[in-house]
Specification:
Blueprint: H1 2-14, E1 22-28, E2 32-33, E3 38-46, E4 52-60, E5 66-72, E6 80-89, E7 92-103, E8 108-117, E9 121-134, E10 141-142, E11 144-146, E12 149-153, E13 178-180, E14 191-193, E15 203-211, E16 221-223, E17 227-228, E18 237-244, E19 249-254, H2 262-289
Parallel strand pairs: 1-11, 2-12
Antiparallel strand pairs: 1-3, 3-8, 4-7, 4-9, 5-8, 6-7, 9-10, 9-12, 13-14, 14-17, 15-16, 15-18, 18-19
Protein name: Cohesin domain-containing protein
Keywords: Membrane, Signal, Transmembrane, Transmembrane helix
Amino acid sequence: MKKILIPILLLLIFTPTVSFAAEIFFGVDKGSFAPNEDFLVRVLMNTEDLAVNAIGGTVLFPSELLELKEIRDGNSSINFWIEKPHDVENGQVAFSGIITGGLSGEKVFLFELVFHSKRSGRSLIRFGDIQVLQNDGLGTKISTKEIPLSLYISQSSDGLQFDLTIRDIDPPEDFKPIVGSDPSLFDGKYFIAFSTVDKGGGIDHYEIRERNFWSFWGEYVVAESPYLLKDQSLSKNLYIRAIDKSGNERTVKIKAQNSLLRFPVNLILGILLVICVFFLGKILSKFLKR
């Protein structure tokens, strides 16, 4: 018996322990659901007092038991998505983003998933290929513990139902797009970069319009940041529209940087205004003389 215990004790003493500097986990209101029930799963992170500025990876779930109905990133701590959370294939959601300036906390909110339970069974929702980077100026990789979520779908669910409807009437937050150029992007041509957040259901998409002074009805086009500008002379006004998942809009304008027509146009408008006032005075004068 002693011959068996000694190797076991030595193994326990000298086996290295793995320590994790951060945790990524799921939040849910209850642990069991009935078939054909919609429920919300939040993706959260505990940074363990370390400032984090980037995270990426995947969420994996059994598509034969769960249907992904919606992904919500409204009010997320991620303020610049490199890859917005999206369903890349059945049972897999990919995401990656940056927290500018870094952030730490015990329940850092990343995004949430709305699932629909198909039938009875045990569902395991887990993470894959999670990478977390520290806000230390070096992008040091942080060892992260991935905590899965075990759910039970059965007829004996507690029967509690939650209203998952988002009542969002507010537009996305104000933002400041940046026009720039970089040799590593678009062969050094001018582009515009933009990003904002929405505290409701999240941003649905962006639209851009490049408009001259005389083209009052320039069309908006769906765009992603960074966006290659069609007008490389920077002589057009830029309108960037952020639209959230409830249809609320926020539009910002960037004035043309190199508009050679700006001064002549203003001069012409002034002259036209003076002429209009002059002729209007003449007409009123004739009318009063009658």
